[in-house]
Amino acid sequence: MIRTRAVGDTRAIAHVPRRVVECVVLGLWLALAVLWELTCPLDDEGDGLVRRTVTCAAFLMAVGYLLTGVRRGPARELREARAVARATQDVLLRPLPPSIDGLTLAARRLSVSQGADVGGDLYEAVATPYGVRIVIGDVRGHGLPAIGAVAAVLGSFREAAYDEAALDGVLRRLDRAYQRRLRDLARQEHPAGGGREPENPAAEEFVTVLLLEIGADSDVRALNCGHPWPFRLGQGAAVPLTAGEPLPPLGAFPLPDDLAPHLCGRLPPGEALFLHTDGAEDARDAAGRFFGLQDALVRTLSGQPPGVPVSPAHVARQVHTALLRHTGGRITDDVALLVLRNDRGARGDRARVPAQSGEPALRRARSEPSRR
């Protein structure tokens, strides 16, 4: 028969022998100090001073040990809680792969809540039979209270992106998932409703969403619900990728019957898209000046050598650093940055990105197709 035991019980039992030994040693030390104080005769003042000094040292050591033990327990629990929180955040807003289906990715995020990486912003990118699909969004509010809505939208996207052949079907699935979230919140806030469906569930709650689809031909299609449009990066320029008037955010109004995705043109090999949440553009410094996101992108691209593709990791890192420098590290809203570069060739295969200077020539020669 296999016996199992709860993890918490196992930890408690593992700590019992050590605690028992520590308590026994401490008790013996104090007992010896007190016994010596009581049994030693008072010959002169020097012996009395020595005894008092030894007794005081014994009690001070005991008190110091007790204080250390009291502090050590909560510190260990805090470390364990942070480890669990980190694992939960990575599952909810998992790190993006460095590349996916011929696209190179890089992302950065900032949360208003101290000690948290996940707030009210969300992003995800998946490779599907219909192309690479990307979502970036911003839940009303920020910090830890918005995580529930982030989980609802991301969980729905990770399923709908594979199941729905059309991009509008993905958006409708996200809307239904978010509406269920709002109804659950309304029931929690008004439990006296007897389980009836609320007429206007959490009317002040909403989430902005930008859906992108990059097909095998590198054409970009988009559906935008109240989210900032991305920037197209290339040739030292950062141009807003606008494709019509955005729809209202999810949760504010019902989706219209006609949800035709906008065709935003083709993303040539070597060019990139910079996606962001409004926390980047709304960030202010101590004087109240807004952060110049487009100017920061242009400055970053101006340092790129001619003919070298945009580096997503470099762009995300530079903008992230400039944003913290502008605000002095005191942000008032969550921020998410996502950069993706097209490394595909003209026929949809991976483009040959120039090798780094330190790469051996033999490796570069083997990576290129043979020529007759």
TrEMBL record:
It comes from the Bacteria. GO terms for molecular function: phosphatase activity. Pfam families: SpoIIE (PF07228). The chain crosses the membrane at residues 20-38, 50-70. SMART domains: PP2C_SIG. The keyword Heme does not apply. Residues 347-372 are annotated as: Disordered. InterPro entries: Bact_Sigma-Reg, PPM-type-like_dom_sf, PPM-type_phosphatase-like_dom. Residues 107-342 form the PPM-type phosphatase domain. Keywords: Hydrolase, Membrane, Transmembrane, Transmembrane helix. Residues 361-372 have a biased composition (Basic and acidic residues). This is Serine/threonine-protein phosphatase. It comes from Streptomyces liangshanensis.
